[in-house]
Amino acid sequence: MAVSFRVLLGRSLVIAPLLVIALSTLIPTTDANEDWTFWCVVCGDHGASDTLANIILFVPLGLGLGLLRWRTVPAWLFGTGLSTAIELAQLMIPGRWPSIGDMVFNGVGTAVGCFLVVMAPRWLSPPTRSAPWWSLAAGGLAGLTFVMTAFMFAPSFPRTVYWGQWTPTLEGLELYDGEVLDAAVGDIPLPSRRLANSDTVRTLLLAGAPLRVTAIAGPAPPGLASIVSIAEQDNKQILLIGPDFDDLIFLHRTVSNRVSLTHPTFELEQWLVSVVPGDTLRIAVQRRDESYCVTLNARTECAGYTVGEGWSIIHNLEVFPWLPRNLVSLLWLAGVALPFGLWARPHPATWAGGVITLLALGLTPFVTGLLLVTPAYQWFAVLAGVAFGMAVAGSWRERRNKKQ
């Protein structure tokens, strides 16, 4: 007996997510977490990001179960049970820190995915009169997502007492076995101690003054280490520059951190591959409009973020380093634009929603001054998401009409 396309797709959306879940939760890491507690639900500096990531990770599994005719409650129980088994296994896996919150939100993600399939007849074919207004709302939400992406990436340095740190010992990071000779923000020295001029340093950083570091290189660390960083009380990082094996890393606090989301990280791959212990490192980092320019000795590279990298404030791909960032950005933008395509109709409200989406995509970098110009492939991703949504909705309506 031939297996239907729905069953094949459902099985695929169960097997593939299970493999991804295993890769992202059961592989040992070098992370340290001295403040870990099993009973934590939403906790830590990136609690909101962890919550969203836990939900999103299990949504595809729920979609697959829904296509296999599971109901929402059994799917929720299955996802919660699976997550519980994973969390218990993590007790014996180095660098893994199970929590009750993971179980809760993994189960929620499974239920959400299944519920979307169960309710598909309603949201794929809304009433003819309301569908264009749904598309207008979807276009407005897409535009808002693009604008908020820009503001989430804006630097955010708190008004507090700052501490300069030279090759510090930090929780969750490696110790860099090198020697810092000098560090400064603009023309202001940055010593390795409590800063008496924190407000001045903050003002300089927000104004784009360069952070300059001169150091003697040590051996390449096996993970991220700090050469020089700025922190507030309790070692909460505000800014950091250091190696991650052969890569040079720069990270800083952004507006996203205020709502417990992650911050962007600039990763300059293989910049330290030719560095040997004892070499002199002259590093400078400076914000120039929408870009950050990093200099290592005679080499300089400027980089920034685009509208399509809004996903990075939810997950920074540390678990999936083999995933190309551009591919993730393409999928993210297509997903943001897909609801508009599902509900698009030949109606003025739909045209208005499309205009809002495209204007936000193109103008946000210029109006905010916080993002790079949207590249061509990201325009294509948005249009592809709209086209795919329209194709899915059209196919659904055609099948429904044939059954009637």
Lay out the secondary structure.
Elements: H1 5-25, H2 47-67, H3 72-90, H4 100-118, H5 120-124, H6 131-152, E1 163-166, E2 179-185, E3 188-189, H7 198-206, E4 211-216, E5 228-231, E6 237-244, E7 247-252, E8 265-268, E9 280-288, E10 291-296, E11 299-304, H8 325-343, H9 348-368, H10 376-403
Antiparallel strand pairs: 1-5, 2-3, 2-4, 4-9, 5-6, 6-7, 7-8, 9-10, 10-11
Helix pairs in contact: 1-2, 2-3, 2-4, 3-4, 6-8, 6-9, 8-10
Characterise the protein shown here:
This protein has 404 residues and is of the alpha+beta class. The strands form 2 sheets. It has a 6-stranded antiparallel β-sheet. A 5-stranded antiparallel β-sheet has the order 1-5-6-7-8, with no helix packed on it. The model has no long low-confidence stretch (mean pLDDT 89).
Main features:
10 helices; 15% strand; 404 residues; globular
What is the share of helical residues? 40-55%
Shape: globular
Q: Main beta sheet: strand number and arrangement?
A: 6 strands, antiparallel
Any idea what the radius of gyration is?
24 Å
- Number of DSSP-assigned strands: 11
Quick check: average pLDDT? 89
Strand order of the largest sheet: 3-2-4-9-10-11
Briefly note the structural class of the backbone: alpha+beta
Give helix and strand order, one letter per element, not per position. Answer: HHHHHHEEEHEEEEEEEEHHH
Name the poorly predicted regions.
Answer: none
Oligomer: single chain
Number of helices: 10
Share of β-strand residues = 15-25%
Intertermini distance? 26 Å
